[in-house]
Write a structure and sequence with these properties.
The chain has eight helices and two strands. The chain is mostly helical. The protein has one domain: lambda repressor-like DNA-binding domains (434 Repressor (Amino-terminal Domain)). The radius of gyration is 16 Å and the shape is elongated. The two termini are about 15 Å apart.
């Protein structure tokens, strides 16, 4: 289905105003929800409280996979949720932890893969669906 030039691969009407929640927002919202301080997060992840603050403001966006894993643990979400790959904080109906760990490892080792993900960070959800559809077609899945 195509509406206003936007490919809807899910069969559901896409909301043009829909925007992916950014990691910085998830970090801050979960920290506040769980009544944790910047220092609590810093200790659990092995960074300074200033680094956590910079994650929350978006000043630092490139977070190492090992830190994402520890951050997800203290914030009681999956790494996939933290990365914006799933809408489910508990990971139900999403990729398994081992799949997410494999993706994080690939991000860490492969500059091209990391560049592809980095270039998609500011895309709206409907644009992500368009790119995903294109990748699926390239991979012969459609």
């Amino acid at each position: 289905m195509c509406k206003n030039g936007i490919v809807d691969t899910t069969g559901e009407k896409l909301n043009k105003e829909m925007k992916r929640v950014e990691m910085k927002e998830i970090i801050r919202e979960r920290r506040i929800l769980l009544d944790l301080t910047l220092e609590d997060i810093a200790k659990a992840v092995g960074v300074s409280h200033t680094t956590v603050q910079r994650w929350e403001t978006g000043e630092i966006e490139d977070i190492k996979g090992s830190k994402i894993k520890a951050l997800a643990r203290i914030l009681q979400v999956t790494p996939g949720y933290l990365m914006g790959w799933t809408d489910n904080p508990d990971g139900k109906d999403s990729q398994s932890d081992s799949e997410v760990e494999a993706l994080l490892e690939r991000l860490h080792k492969d500059d091209n893969y990391r560049a592809l993900l980095s270039s998609s960070v500011d895309l709206k959800k409907e644009d992500v669906l368009i790119v995903k559809d294109l990748i699926d077609r390239i991979n012969g899945k459609k």
